[in-house]
Amino acid sequence: MSDIQIDMDGLLDTFFEEAEEHLAAFENGLLELEDNPGNRDVVARIFRAAHSIKGASGTFGLTDVTRFTHALETVLDRVRSGDLAYSRELAQVFLPSVDVLRALMRAAREGSAAPAEAASIRVELEKFFVGSASAAPHADAKAAAPVSASREVRVHFVPKLEFMSRGMDPLAMVRDLADVGEIVSREIDASKVPELSCLDPEQMHLSFWIGLKTEKTDKEIAEVFAFVDDLCTFEIVAKVEAAPVVVKEAAPEVHEHAPAEKTAAAAADHGGGAKAAAPAATIRVSTDKVDKLLDLVSEIVIAQAMIVDASRASGQDAETRLNEALGSLDRHTRELQERVMSIRMVPLASVFGRLPRMVRDLAATVGKKVRLVVEGETTEIDKSMVEQLSDPLTHLVRNAVDHGLEFPEDRIKKGKPEEGVVRIRAFHQGGNVIIEVSDDGKGLDTAVIRAKAERLGIVTPDAVLTNDQIHDFIFSAGFSTAAKVTDVSGRGVGMDVVKRNVEALKGSLSLSTELGTGTAMRLRLPLTLAIVDGLAVRVGAQTFVVPLLSVLESFRPGPSQVRGVLGSGEVIDMRGTSVPIVRLHELMNEPNAERDPSRALLCIVEANGQSLALLVDDVIGQAQFVVKSLEVNYRKVPSLMGATILGDGRVAMIVDVQSLARHTGRGADASFSASEAA
Amino acid sequence: MSKLVLVVDDSLVIRKMVCQTLVKLGFETCEAADGMAGLEAAKGKELALVITDYNMPRMNGLEFIKELRTVDGHKFTPVVFLTTEMEETLRNEARAAGATAWVVKPFQPEKIISVVQKIAA
């Protein structure tokens, strides 16, 4: 038995992953119950969630989690059976329970101490148990039971005739008895066995006397027969003489509990050991997807064999075959790439799932009535982005509730419904994921923002600005127009941070608003950060890749189009606007590049609503490039988002247009004012 | 004799643990996440043993055992029923439905080993 090793560590990861899903289901179920407290399906669902976590946590010896879920489950069982109505009081204990469970799970994962609230919330839960006497959880009751002294009993076990034909094994019962004590004697009573001529071998004619040395009560011993109690009779007789009868009949030393406890301890140790290493990220993939990958790989292997074959032959025919094989290789490689990428894609539901609870809590705190509408939660995005998306999205929704929506009485005055609506919508659009957070609140007040911007010195009072330009000021650092900084939004995180977070994901953030009608924030994100559609350009001996999404156009300027600006570089006149020129060869220290713009090319790129002209020698062409992290392989380099390996094996740097625009942006602003002053 | 065991449980981690244990014991395994899927999985297969949870979506363990007994070839397939201590009252119902043995959750791999060795070894 001991040679069987189970990988409890790996299973523990699965447990945590699954528990997180159950918790989310639990939480959302609770929110559903708020609207519809009598929904039995929902109650059954959340019961199952608590139940599953409990069942599995016990296996891993995560006692705190087991004990807490046991309390939850006990109360939920009463709700499920209709014994207890789902009330507001109950909700007020259940919802914090979710947080406690999350914290307990984290504590178990990191090996840290259980959160302090766990005990108090559990006490709250226990108040809903049937009567206070049974309030103590089962596990506790067991632990508190006094350890009775060892004694010897004789168990008389008489199986009925049909015992075996009903699929039971009498010897299994004897072995089960070894679980509750030490078997010191075994006798078989064969007196009832009939004559051979009338013996039905499928019938049970034997009975057993088992001597047992045990610390268990009669009731606990009787448990062994609980499953077969209508198929047998049994009797537990205390041994009259306490004199030790030494019948050392090689009693099997099967003491089931000892190894079980050891495993539990080992599992707990594993839990503790896991705290040093960060939890390994895992993705669950359906076997269908993996099978498809295998299919594709075998197609590629075939194509490769075809190429080898064709390259050995000669003549026109061989060339045709080679082209065919290459075509097939190309097709399958591309499909393989797409499919592997799709494995990394997860639905946005995992980020959206946390929002309903937050909105509910926030609405209650600020005293507003809010309905959250979520659409497109099945829209998929790269798994690595999902986690980083949570913060900015939470902040946008929080802003919509706190700043966007009016108070119920104000809404009624304006003739709007009392309940405000915050809508989250996600969808795919041309290789991007769009997430919109909109509200039907008061909208941005252009005059207020402008006044604030002037006060902060971001803009001069006489500057002529469009409404959109004014609205964009809310993305500036330190900008907050809320009349008073509330506990909710005033946490030092402004829209500028949200914007930066989004840009770190190679995405962009824009807004549209109408006074009195509402505001919509629009997040545009690439599907993945692992592959980029790019334009390869040559600068001297080097090749650079510019993300295609930001490229507007490329052209060779006439000598008169380029103007030097005093002290801060040069600009190009494009249809009446001045675009700052960035000399990539200077930025990247490439000495052998073309310096004269009229003999080179300008590649116009755009990021954060600002245009830049990159000076390059030549445009090579567009393709998909696999992004390799510079941070991981080398170190972070400003203005570069990563590197890639070209078809000929050389390394090419991928330009980070957004950071380039940020760094050049200020210089450009300065150049504008300088040129206007001139 | 078949070495194939069907494990029916909505918890992936329990399924994984039970299956890993069974594989170490020399069995082959197949899995289902609820009773309905369990019935589908059992059809046309010769099974050494079925291990099923009670509380599952769509079809619970009791209904599953009752249905399984009507499936061709599974009238006598041994079935181990997984319950928690809360569901102890279910034992009789489970036995009436046709379960052969039960295991109380939470359990460690050793428990599965001893039960399986008693029933299907």
Return the CATH class of the largest domain in chain A: Alpha Beta
What is Rg of chain B? 13 Å
In spatial order, strands of the major sheet of chain B run 2-1-3-4-5
Number of strands of chain B: 5
pLDDT averaged residue by residue of chain A: 78
Name the poorly predicted regions of chain B. none
Helix content of chain A: 40-55%
CATH class wording of the domain at 4-87 in chain B: Alpha Beta
Number of strands of chain A: 22
User: Which geometry of chain B do the CA atoms define?
Assistant: globular
The CATH homologous superfamily of the domain at 4-87 in chain B is named Response regulator
* Number of helical stretches of at least 4 residues of chain B: 5
Task: Report the C-alpha radius of gyration of chain A, rounded.
Answer: 36 Å
Instruction: Label the CATH architecture of the largest domain in chain A.
Output: 2-Layer Sandwich
What structural class should be given to the helix and strand makeup of chain A?
Answer: alpha+beta
Q: Which architecture of the domain at 4-87 in chain B per CATH? A: 3-Layer(aba) Sandwich
Strand fraction of chain A equals 15-25%
Give the N-to-C terminal Cα separation of chain B.
Answer: 10 Å
CATH topology description of the domain at 4-87 in chain B: Rossmann fold
Percent of sequence in beta strands of chain B:
15-25%
Please give a handful of descriptors for the protein shown:
heterodimer, A: 678 residues, alpha+beta, Alpha-Beta Plaits, six-stranded mixed sheet, five-stranded mixed sheet, 22 strands, 43% helix, flat, disordered C terminus, B: 121 residues, alpha/beta, 5 helices, 21% strand
Kindly describe this structure.
The complex is a heterodimer of chains A (678) and B (121). Chain A is built from 21 helices and 22 strands. Chain A starts with 7 loop residues before the first helix and ends with a helix. With 678 residues, chain A is an alpha+beta fold. Chain A binds chain B through residues 1, 4-7, 11, 14-15, 18, 45, 47-48, 51-52, 54-59, 66, 73-74, 77, 138, 167-169, 172, 175, 226-227, 254, 256, 259-260, 263-264, and chain B through 10-14, 16-17, 20-21, 24-25, 55-57, 76, 78, 84-86, 91, 95, 100-102, 105-111, 113-114, 118-119.
